[in-house]
Amino acid sequence: MLRPMEWDPADGGPDALTEERPLTPEPRQSKPRTSNISEAEFSCHCCYDILVNPTTLTCGHNFCRHCLALWWESSRKNECPECREKWEGFPKINILLRDATEKIFREVVERRRAEIQANPKVSRSLLAFQRYGDKLGRSKTSQNKGAGFFFSGVLTALTCVAVVVLVYHWGSGVVEQQDLLISKPVSHWTPEEVVSWLEQLGPWTESYRKPFQLENVNGRLLLMLGDEELLKSPFSIENQTHRRAVLAELERVKALGVKPPQNLWEYKAANAGKSLFLLYALKRSPRLTIFYLYLFDYSETFLPFLHTCCPAIAHINNTVESSFLYTQLEPSWQQWAEFLVKYLVLPYQLIAEFAWDWLTVHYWTSRFIIVNAMLLSVLEACSLWRLWTTAPIRTLPQKTWNHLWKVLSQGFAFALMWPFIPQFVCNCLFYWALYFSPIINIDLVVQQLMHPETQAR
Question: For residue 195, what are the domain limits?
Fold first, then answer.
């Protein structure tokens, strides 16, 4: 038998035991310990503020989503802003880290999200960054559907047309055919070549060819002719306009020592390096190239170019023979004003107008040049718009200087390497830029118009 329990009066009896020692102990309330968590552990490595939509890169660094979008838009590089390690695929939001940040720093995150939504520049950057990710995630099959499939068919058709035109030129000898007079000194011309030179001035010289042929005028005698000799018998060129046209062209022959080129292929044969340089330079920097012609090739190339693109009103209805006269005259102030406006605002329009004037001579080639000029104008407008909307104004002088330095260095390198480049390679580069460059620019224009925010330059 158990012995009865004895209570000590000092303890207060059984009631006191019940109060001090409860039969069911109360559970302890656990509280999260956040005293050891610092804001630095949840800070962005770009803005050094609390992370908003934290994005973890391959290297392990965390950044705010908008900070990473701004970095990508300014640098166009798929690399970590801190350690420069390239990321793989497209970065996604770290959901676990986002939830933890929102629970611990709720007020800060809400305040920062409101600031981000109120900033239109940040919103555009996030949209461009997301479109860039969508573009990376598209499969090759989906890229060939819809508009992409349509334009790929257009590019294929245009490529076939360019190949056919190029094969036609090579097969018929049009590309390699040029007048020997552009390289043969005028003093060595035969009477037949003198008559051929006179015939190329235009159909208006038909009545004057026979006297030259009967007198057996060769190159040396041609250089001795002047205004009085052409007016008298046996030449008897009494029409003052015709006589001035013959003398003007004769002065050009005397100055050059050979017959000046009269079409694109003759110009290419006489100035192979310059034609290739101008073809690529006009595409990259038309304003600098036209300024180069003004400084170093004024009378031979720049003046005919200006008179063709901005003709004088007094010569619009003149006959063909007068073209040899006014192309060497100094432009009027109205021509200069029209030229400078087009030069500064629409430089590619000058090239298109020049090609349009040669449609009768270079049918397909002029059309390729006109289409290419239109496409380059669209690409330049897109570049200026992107520069205006995304880049700060203070960066404009630096970008201009970088472009100028790049063009000048490439031109200098071209001048040094030109003597060592085989002629076959030069011809391939020339015809590639002439016929296939418009096809490539069509694809660039389509990309710019469909996804303008995701285009890197």
Answer: 181-256
**Together in a domain, 212 and 297:** no
Same structural domain, 250 and 337: no
Instruction: Return the CATH number at 220.
Output: 1.10.150.50
Residue whose tokens read 């002088």: 397
Question: In angstroms, rounded to a whole number, what is the distance separating the alpha carbons of residues 93 and 76?
Answer: 20
Position 73 scores a pLDDT of 85
pLDDT of 337 reads 92
Alpha-carbon distance of 399 to 252, in angstroms, equals 42
Question: Are 280 and 362 contained in the same domain?
Answer: yes
Residue where one domain finishes, among candidates 111, 137, 163: 137
51 lies in the same domain as 124: yes
- Nearest CA to 222 out of 180, 185, 179 is that of 185
Q: What is the pLDDT of residue 457?
A: 40
Count of domains observed in the chain = 3
Closest CA to 162 of 445, 439, 440, 369: 439
pTM for the model stands at 0.59
Is 46 domain-assigned? yes
Q: Are 97 and 62 in contact (CB under 8 A)?
A: yes
Of 178-192, 284-298, 333-347, 441-455, the poorest mean pLDDT is in: 441-455
Distance (Å, whole) CA 382 – CA 128: 15
pLDDT tens digits along 89-108: 788 888 888 888 888 888 88
Do 284 and 418 sit in the same domain of this protein? yes
Residue 12: left (phi > 0), alpha (psi -120 to 50), or beta? left
Render pLDDT for 182-205 as a digit per residue (tens, 0 to 9).
888 888 899 998 888 888 887 888
Cα separation, 234 vs 212, in Å, equals 8
